[in-house]
Amino acid sequence: THASLHEASSFVETIENVQGLKVACLEEIAFRNGWLSKEKLKEASQQLSKNDYGRYLSELLDE
């Protein structure tokens, strides 16, 4: 329903804002499992560097 979709969206937004994590970030999942190299993660972060998602990927490289 419309209400449940809105509730789920709000939940994801809250998690991302409070914890500073992205929900279902495929690049992060792949990187942490060793399926994506640091070089490929860097490429992805550079391609998306002008938005929050790209900056999030860039922060993963600094961990």
Please write out the topology.
Blueprint (H helix, E strand, L loop, with lengths): L1 H18 L6 H7 L5 H10 L4 H10 L2
Q: Structural class from helices and strands?
A: mainly alpha
Identify low-pLDDT runs.
Answer: none
Number of helices: 4
Strand content bin: under 5%
The gyration radius over C-alpha positions equals 14 Å
Oligomer: single chain
**Approximate helicity band:** over 70%
* Gross geometry: elongated
Task: Describe the overall structure.
This is Glucose-1-phosphate thymidylyltransferase. The protein is mostly helical. The chain has a domain at 25-63. It is 71% helix and 0% strand. It contains four helices and no strands. It has helices spanning 2-19, 26-32, 38-47, 52-61. The protein is elongated and about 40 Å long.
Features of the shown structure:
about 70% helix, mainly alpha, about 60 residues
Question: Brief overview, please?
Answer:
With 63 residues, this protein is mainly α. The protein has helices at 2-19, 26-32, 38-47, 52-61. It has four helices and no strands.
